[in-house]
Description:
It contains twelve helices and no strands. By secondary structure, the chain is mainly α. The longest helix has 47 residues, at 2-48. The chain is globular and about 60 Å long. The model has no long low-confidence stretch (mean pLDDT 80).
Amino acid sequence: MAGDISFQIEASAIERSKRNSMTKWAKTILPWLIIAVGLATIIYPRVTGTPLFPVFHYDNPATPDYNELMDYAFWQVPFVYIFSYITRAWGPLALAFVLGGVLSSFVPKEKMKKYLSSNHFYSFVLAGVFAPVLTVCSCAMIPIFGGLLMSGAGIGPALTFLLMAPAANIMALIFTATIISPKIMLFRLAFSLVGAIAIGYLVSRTRWGKEQETKYAGLTAVSVEEAKFNFSEKSWNAMKEAGILAKLVLPYLGIGIFVISFIERYLPTQLVVNYLSGTTGVALGAVIGVPTYT
């Protein structure tokens, strides 16, 4: 009888060990799987011309002059627009949140503070030079920006990275050179780099910028030394950091998309034609586009 009980206890312990091992394996692979899928949703359409997963389009390419959102009732507009946005952007956003978490979890804070500190001008140049490697949209850069801050980067270089990546990433530069001209591509690269560095540097010198730098530095979910964690633990910590970033960013992103849906629906096309042309149009477009671009 005692032998049977001992055998059952041992079998139960082995079963628990197997479950724990499987759970550990799943936690380790999950962030890297999300990153791989997110990259695929970005690269595959660029290569093939078709989305990797089904995308809901409320607009019809065959009728570019007609706004299909006008066919929906007032209360339906934000739901249709947000659903369309989610089907198009979930991959890049998931990639961005997890990548931000990976930066915060894996990159040693001492290294980040050394190479991306607001106290050194070369940090701004490094951020501007390496940012084009990341081919993501502006909204997906926000979680990565947060991850940089949480991992110890200064707000100035992080902001330079945030502005430079969507403005002059590799794919954007290739398309600009191919579709418009190589000369315009060079101007885009140069002005984006200078502008991103200048804005990052100026913001890092403000009281508000320094306060935000301190705020994000204290948001990390990891409270002990990074060296004590193995790869599996750091991978799971990256998911926790991604969750923190999602809680910070998603509410504001949702509000922005909600507002944009009504602008898309009710802003007359003729108004855009009349006022968003020429020098005045460029200035007005910048004023409208900066707070509303998604």
